[in-house]
Predict the 3D structure of the following.
Amino acid sequence: MTTETAETTETTELPQLPFSRPTVLDPAPAFAELRERAPLAQVRTPAGDRAWLVTGYEAARALFGDPRLGRSHPDEATAPAVSDAAIMGGPTGNHDTEHADHARLRALLRPAFSAKRMRALDDHVADLVARCLDEMAAARSRAPHRPVDLHAHLSFPLPALVISELLGVPATDREHFRDLSLRASRMGSGGDAAMALSEFHAYLGRVAAAKRARPGQDVLSDLVRAQADDPSFSDDKLVRLATGLLFAGHETTVNRIDLGVLLLVTNPARRDAFLADPASRIAGVVEEILRMAAPADLGVLRYAHADIEIGGTLVRQGDAVLLAPSAANRDPAMFADPDVFDPSRAANHHLAFGHGAHFCIGAGLARTELRAVFTALFTRFPTLRLAADVHDLPVRGDQLTGGISALPVTWTL
């Protein structure tokens, strides 16, 4: 077998990310084309650098759990970049201590995101969902002939309210940190992304300082307390961790709510099948939404900390690797009829939350929110439908996390 490396494709014109896609609900056809050739392939990032794009399920799952990959780079000055976005655009962390740092911080956060804690949140999240749906109904009553923006009334505010409360960030600041999140993750910003990230760190630094003066029962207070036992856990590390939690804790769930709603309302038979028995079908519906909703095309960035051979391909130390769950979750080698929305899948081992040591610590929180949203939304508004053509929805093409910025819906009064 011939081992492929970056050098063997030096003279080949590489596919350029991001790939075009028919609609926000459909994966880019280029993913399937690349996956049919090999589980990983060389591509160009939006920044123009080389990266390995992993589209096959088995390869993605193995590499998600491979300790030879990390978020840091042995030489940041030469690290390939995804883009100029300040979040997830390039390497982060200390290359020498990354794995130990990650294990220590994950152990610190685990109690706040435990299954027991998530179960205790069920009723409270349901109450927050009900409040958001009341706002939707009120908006429709004020202007019964106009669509209601579900993104503005539900998809954005709910995750922001939940993660704010969990972290101990004032919920009244949600518009502020949403603006900072969007700016920091914007590609081609001309330097504004880096400025926004600096502002984000300063903002959370002020919140953390307030917690030192008056700690509460929240994650930021826990992190402040942990500093007393670990002098190496600096203020800079604390605010960087808090920024990542606040960004990931609301941005990705916003997208999953938007696209999950689209998956159901664009197929009335699918919506009605769920409505026939929401209680018993909600778990399967949520897992299919997680598998099929793919707001972003760029993948999860990692760097090789050592040479890795997979599927006859040699990934060199220092190479950028983009793990693409949106492609892996449509791999027919793993999922029968992968483009069919099937809540009854017996074994839906998707990679929406990654795999291995870096499995998303907020997975339980996201599932709690999604179960509450979809059960209540379609029970409250069983005739909910899209009030626009899916091709006309405003796609956030300049955002690393993708998604849409508005979701007009209506229903029978």
